[in-house]
C-alpha cells in the first residue's frame, strides 16, 4: 500500500466510495423527507421512480460500506437513511376506501359463514340463559336483583308500578327524551364493554365467552319476565326487538369470535397452537369489528328510531326487518369469490 | 431505559437496524394521543354547548359517536394514513413497523389497536367510569391493568400484548445526520506525520472508531484540550512514534494517524485480515493499564 497522506486530493478508497455516491444519498434523503411529511403521492411520477431506484442504490451502498469502510459516521448515516427510505418504500399501500369496501363486501360475510357454529351456539346460550332466568323468576322474583346490576335496571324492578314500567317503554315527554339519549349512551358503552370482554376472554378455552353470554341471557330473561308479569309482555318485546335483534346478535357474534379463538387453542388441528390462533384470529377480529358496528347501529336505533316509532307493531316490524337485513348480508355477501373472482389477496387463509 | 436495537431484514436482503422506542416515549405518545383526542372532543363540545346551536339529545348522541371514534378508529385510521404514526407518535418521533420486515398491513394495524381497547381503554373506563360493576371485578380490573402495563417492561422487544399478536414493533424514527468524512479534511499548511505499517498495525477497528468520535469535536475548553493531549501522548507512546510531537500539533497528529490507520485497516480488512480491536495480534496478550487508558477517553 502506498501512503497517500501527502496528497489531499487523492482520497483513500472508502472516502472515494463515499464521495462518488454522496450526491445520490442526499437526493434520496430529500425525497424521503418530502414523502414523510406529505406522503408519497406528493412526489409525482418521476420522483417516485427515482425514490425506488435510489433506495436500492442506498441499500447496496450500505451493504458495501459495511464490507469496506471503517468510517463509523458513514455507516450510521447510511443505516438510518436506508431505514427511513425502507419505511417510505414499504408503507402500507391499501387505501382506506379499498380496505373498507373489501372488508364490508367480502371479509365480514365470509367470516360469519365460516364461524356459523360458534355464533349459533352463542345465540343458544343467550336463549338458554333467558329461559333459566324466566323459570327462576317465576319461582321467586327476588332473583331479579341477583341477575340485573343496579345501574342497568334504572328503577325498572319488580316493585315498580305498572305505569312506571310502561313509561320506560313508551317515550311521551320531552323531559324523558333527554334522559333516554344519555341512558342509551350508557347502554352502548356498557354493551361494547360486555362484547369486548366476551370476545377477549374467549381465548381461554372458549368457555368464558359462553358463560358470559349465558349471563347476558339471564339479564335479558329477568327483564322480559318482569315486564310480562306486569302485563306488558308484548310491549316489552316490541321495545326490545327494535334494537335488541341487532344488539343481541352482536353479542352472539362477539361470543362466536371469542369462541373461535378458544377453539383454536383447544383444538389446533394439524398446525401449532400459536399458528392456529393466528389463523383463527383473522376471522375472530373480523367478527369483533362486526359486533362493534352492530352495536353502533343498535345504539343509533335505540337513540333515535325507538323514539320515532312508538307503535309496538311497527317496532316489531322494524326490529326484525333490520335483523333480516343483517342475515341477508351475512348469507349473500361476498359470494362471488367462490366462482374465482379477481381477488389477489392472500387473506383467504381460512376454510 | 437503555435503547435496544433490533435488526430487520427487508426484501433487499441488507439487514437494517432500528432502535426500539423507549417505554417512556411510548407512554408519552399514548398520553399525548389521549390528551389530543379527548381534549379536542371536550373543547369541541364546550364550544357547542357555549354557542347552543344544537339541542341536548342531539349533542349527547353526537358525543357518544365522536367519543367512540376517537378511540380505536382514530388509531387505526391515523396509522394507516400516516404509515404507522399517530399524532402522539409523530410528536415523540416513534412509529410502528412490522416485525417481519414486510410492509405494515391493515390487518396488523387493526389488531394492535383493537387490543388497545382491551389493554388501555377498558381498564381506564372501568376504573374511573363510576360504579358500573362490583368491587371484586374492579379489583380484578386494577390487577389486569397493572399486569398489562407491565407487559412491555418485561417483553424482550418492548411489545405490548397487541404488538405481540399483530407482530408489530414500535421503533424510534431514525434520524439521518451525515457528518463530514474525517479522512478527507486536510488543510495544506501544516506538518504531516507519517506512520509505518508496524505503527499502524497496533490498533484495530474499535480504537479507530473511538478516535473518530474524539476527532468529531475540536476541543474548545482547556479540559478538552488536555484530554486530547493525553490521547495523543498515549497513542504516540503505545505505537512507539519516534518524532517529537509539539502540543500544538496534537490535533494534526491524531487526524493524520486516523486517516492512515483507517486506510491501513480497511485494506487489511479487504485482504481478509479484519482487526476488530488492539488485541488482534495475540489473543493471549494482556491489556496493560496504559493501553486501557485510551479507551477511557471516549467522550
From TrEMBL, chain A:
InterPro entries: SpoIIM-like (IPR002798). The chain crosses the membrane at residues 116-137, 248-266, 287-306, 312-332. It comes from the Bacteria. The keyword Isomerase does not apply. It holds the Pfam family SpoIIM. Keywords: Membrane, Transmembrane, Transmembrane helix. The keyword Plastid does not apply. This is Stage II sporulation protein M. The lineage of its organism: Bacteria, Pseudomonadati, Pseudomonadota, Alphaproteobacteria, Rhodobacterales.
TrEMBL record, chain B:
It is a multi-pass membrane protein. Pfam families: RDD. Keywords: Membrane, Transmembrane, Transmembrane helix. Residues 275-299 are annotated as: Disordered. It is found in: Membrane. The chain crosses the membrane at residues 31-50, 56-77, 139-155. This is RDD family protein. It comes from Paracoccus onubensis.
